[in-house]
Structure formats: C-alpha cells, structure tokens
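Q: Protein A?
A:
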Amino acid sequence: MVSACCCYIVNAGYLFPTLLSALQARRSCTDAVGDVIILCVGPSDSTTDAYRAICDAHGIRFMSVSADVLDGLPISFARFFVHRILERRYKSVLYLDGDTQVCGSLDPLLQVSIPKGRFLAARDPMSIEYQERNTKYEETYLHSIGLPAASARRYFNSGVIRFNLEDWPETSSRVLSVSGDRNHGFRFPDQDPLNIAFGDDYLTMSYKWNFPAFFLNSGFQTLIEPRVYHFMSNPRPWDGPFAPWGRNWFEPYTKLIRQFPQLENLRSGIKPLRYLKYMLQQRYKQLVETPFWGSQPIRKRVLQIEQDAYF
C-alpha cells in the first residue's frame, strides 16, 4: 500500500473545482507513489453521490466526513483536522486547495524528505509586497496580527502544504490555540494563525508547486515552469475566461461539464452583473498591477526565493 497522498478537504459547495484538480492530480501522480483523496465534509446526498461515482471510476478516493470532526469550526479550518480522518499508513501528505489546477508530476513533491516537525509551504505574494511595494497596507496588517518583521518577510500561503502526517496533530494544535486566543479575528482565518504559530520556522517551497495565478500577468511561468497553479482570489477560472488566465484555464472546467454532463446542474453560476464586474475588475488589475509585478526588482526577488527554496 502506498504511504503518500494528495488530499483535498472541502464541503459540497466546492466539489466542482476540486474534482477538476483531483482528476489532474490523479493523472500527475503515479499510482505506486500516492493516492488522491477528496474528503467531503457534510452528509451524503444526491450531489455527493454524483461526485463519488466519478471519483470511483477514475481512481480517486472520495470520503464523506461528519462536520463533527471540525469541532464546530468553519470549513476554512478543515485542513487542520485531516490527521483525524486519514489512515496512519499515509506518512507523506500533500494538501491542496480545490481552487488549483495541476499541470505536472507531483511525484517529486510527495517523495521529498522533510525533517521531523517541519512542513513545506510557498511564500505568499503578500510577503513580497511587504518588502517591495510603496504602501503600508501589507505592513500594517501583518504587524497588526502580531507578526514580527522576520516572519512578515516570509509570510507563506496555506493553499498548498506538504507535511508529514505524524507531525500534523501538533501543528494543528498550535494553530488552533493561536486562533482561539484571538477569537478567530483574522482576515485569513487558516493562514494567519498558521503563520503566527510558526513564523519563519518552515521550509520554503518553490512557486512551481503553488504558483499564484496573477503571476501570469508578468510572465513568471516561463521562469518557474509551474506544476500547480493556484487561483487564490475571486473571480476564479470556473467563473469565466477573465484576465489573466483567459480561455486557457477556463476551458478545463467546460470540458469537465462536457465529459460529465450530470454536473451541469450541480454547480452554481454567476449573474450577468457580477460577470461584468469581474471582467472590468480583472482588466483594471492587469493595467495597475503588471508594472509592479513585472518590474526588475520583483523579478529578482521572485528568482531569489526560487533559488533559496528547500524544494
């Protein structure tokens, strides 16, 4: 039996994008190296049954999980409870958010050795803005949640994390303690307490494993050759072919519907006014953000992060 897995934990409302990512992960992960697992929080019903049938037919494990496992916390905290659900035989776990697309082999990431008590995560773009941008927004926020300067410079994203399952109970306990002490008062309720609990005491992952989608505006994909693309803010590519991803990253979701027409009525669309808002918003972001993210200092910063990454 394999001892590694790619793991998603979502509720029924997020199954549509998660299914696409999981199918891609299954194609990108050798059977002998790792399993691909979707943990769906909530009761089974006709919706979850439809997704379960697709997963069963494509080598993906689909498990319905009682909401009780989250101790009354919202779904955003679910990643901190996977150790309660996964079998102990899984030693290496790659957690992925459902708003990702997988475009290259995950085997090396599942097989890399991680020292006891550590985990791999990619630097969040906010940490780059903290150091480089002429604004106090990120600095004020990161300091307001109690991050010292050293940790703010290495503030990481929690959407893709590679960890050893045996370490996760202790990691989760520290995070939930921080969150509880602050009465869950964070803009990013999972990511902020994880950063506070561990500061800069983690191993930096290359952006190839957690590539922020808006980096597409600046051509970083030609430098980094990503394997996991992360669409970490609204709109998402399943909402429409908005900038910067366009049809290249929207089309996989339309293909998913064509392949499994039973999913058509199981996903929610967006209303025309919101569609127009997103279209204008994303064009504006392209015009405003590209000069900053495409600048030479930022390019150097990103390449330095890549050079210094543990893996």
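Q: Protein B?
A:
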Amino acid sequence: MDRRVYFVIDMKSFFASVECAERGLNPMTTNLVVADKERTEKALCLAVSPSLKKLGVKNRCRLFEIPKGIDYIIAKPRMKKYIEYNAKIYGIYLKYIDKKDIHVYSIDESIIDVTDYLKLYDIRAKAFALKLIREIKETVNIPATCGIGTNMYLAKVALAITAKKSNDGIGWLDENKFKKELWFHRPLSDFWGFSRGIESHLARLGIYDMHGISKADSDMMYKEFGVNTEIIIDHSNGIEPVRMEDIKNYKRKSHSISQAQVLSRGYKYDEIKIVLKEMINEGCNTLMKNHLVTNVISIHLGYDGEGLSHASSKIGITTNLYSYIIEEALKIFERIIDKNRLVKRIGFSFNALPDIYEQYDLFTDMESVEKQKKLMNSVINLKERFGKNSVLKAIDFEEGATQIERNKLIGGHNSE
C-alpha cells in the first residue's frame, strides 16, 4: 500500500477568533468569550480566546465561572457569520486541493489527503501545511494549527498532542514516531477516540497507556470491548486502515430525525405540551422535505433539577403527516410526564425510512392524506422562499411557545 499523507487543520478557538477578526483585534492576545449573556451568568461559553485559556479559563465554562478581576469581551454567538468564515476557509483549500480529497470534519476542522498534491506542487508536507495556515491567517485573520500523519488517526493525534508543543503549531507522526514519542503518553483520553469512560475501563484492567494496550491479551480485550477491540488495538499501534475514499463512499444504512432543546426556565405541563407540538410539527416537515417517513417515535423529558422520562412507541402506519404522528406522540407524552414537576429539557426522534415505504391501514382516508401532503409541501416551499417565520401556526403564538425564536437560530444559537 502506498504511503499516504493527511492534514487535519483546526481553527484555534474558531468562534472567538471570528469575533476578534470582525472587531479588528488579535485573536491570540484579546480576552474574549462567545456567549449569550441574555441567558444570565449561567450562559455557556461556546468559545474562549487563547489568551483567556492561558489565564486558566476553561473552554465551555459558564460565565459565572470566569474568575473575577479578568477583563474580557462578551460576544453574542453569530452562527451565520461563522458559517461564512468556514466557507471562505474551505475556498482557500479548493484553490489547491480537489473537494474529493477534503472532508469537513466540523465547522472548525477539516481532514485533507494531500498525498498527490505534495508531488504535484513539489513541496514537503510541513511547508504545504504552513502555506495553507498562513493564507488562512492573511485572508480571514484566523489562527490555525495542523496535525500531519501517515493516516487520519495519526494526523488527529498529531493535532491534539504534538502540535501543541511546537512553536509553529504543526505536529507530525508516522507509526514509528508514534510509538517512540507517545506509546507511554498519559492520559489515554488525550488520544482521539479514547473517552474518559474507555480510559477508566482500561485502568481497571491495569492498562494506562498505548503500550499497555498493544501488549494486552487479545482474548481479554475482546471480552471487555467486543467489536471495538480491533479499532482500539490498531490505534494503540498507530494503525488506521480507513482512507479518504472510504469516507466519501460511506452511506448510512439507517437514518433518524431528532431534535432537542434546553428551555430558558422550567415549563409546566400545559406549556411543555405546546413546545412538544411545535417540535413534532417541525420534525414532520423535515421528514416531508427529505422524502422520508417514520413508524417509530421516541420522546424524552428532562426535569428541572434531576430526573429523566423517556419512551418509544411504534405506530401502526408509516407516514410523515403531522395529524397521525402527533396523536401517537401525545400518547407517549401523557404516559411519561410527571405533571407535578417542571420540564427543562425536551427532545424527540423519529426513525426515518425512504418514503417508498409509506403505508397506511385500510381505514385511512387517502383523499385526506393527499390534501395534507399538498398543504405541507406548500408550507415548506413558502418557508424556503420567505423564511421559516413566514408561515406559522396559532400554537406558535401561545404563551410558552418557542418556535418563532428557535427559527431565528442555527444549531441552537443566534444566527445573526
């Protein structure tokens, strides 16, 4: 197999860096957090600038957790703006690399197979990485780091561990360097794919580093970790067989539509029922828009304080029509809701099948079904043309309703 070279390029404190760039400030020296202070001091900081991190402020902290005496800027999240910057950065990659060799891993991170381009441009991997990082800095004023590896896993590990120790923000690993420098590195949770849960599980077996995993009894490992064992052992040796073409050719075997929200306060029984109806309506529109149907509904509720309620139900038909789905959803809701408690979190999920599997029973009024479909499609088309709030239901104006405000959000955060 030919030797591949991968980059994993990550934008440093992306949301915070964008807000600094928009203000003409240096993202490396400006104290700034991205948070919606209108949600009180308990608001979660979506990003913390590098200078604040150096002062001990942890990423994803709450506003009230930032030590007193530190001066900093609070920037309200603007998801549309971050998406715009992401598009500009992606455009820089496309100047040099075909899209088939780029995988956008997240809004602030991309994986790139640069193997063929090193030969094309007659350039070394580190020099090419520096070129891309510098162009990103010059174009959008966003600092970036890069992990270079002979497979995607090693590139991710190089980014997470070795790049932090280098002066230029670039780290690189091959299998030999991985074993030489990181085989005894601790904690294991520093490595991509190794959660604290896996780390604790391994610790109970007396295993604390990658070397320990690589030398462990394979039968014992399979007994403890099942089908994930092969991946764990491969990664302990710096091996990753998955390549860019595997990612590009991957097709999910099953789909689901899900949605959840954390409410600004505890909601009473009547109020949370309104929110559920709004969410199910939006979920049905998503099914219709994507030519999908469902026959399984799940609902979960999280109470103010502690406690969860959750249940799933299979319905007798396979559809995407709100009138049928909401009936079953409300049955589940009434079965699991504790009416004496306030609800702070709510979510649902539908299993999703292609609409060729749409099916009704013998008693269904098919003329009504077709009318409902036409109406839903008309509403979807109007919303796509004039905005999500161009067509609303009466329920969206009731006290406690959240849909109008949520339509202004992207990823649960302010879109502007």
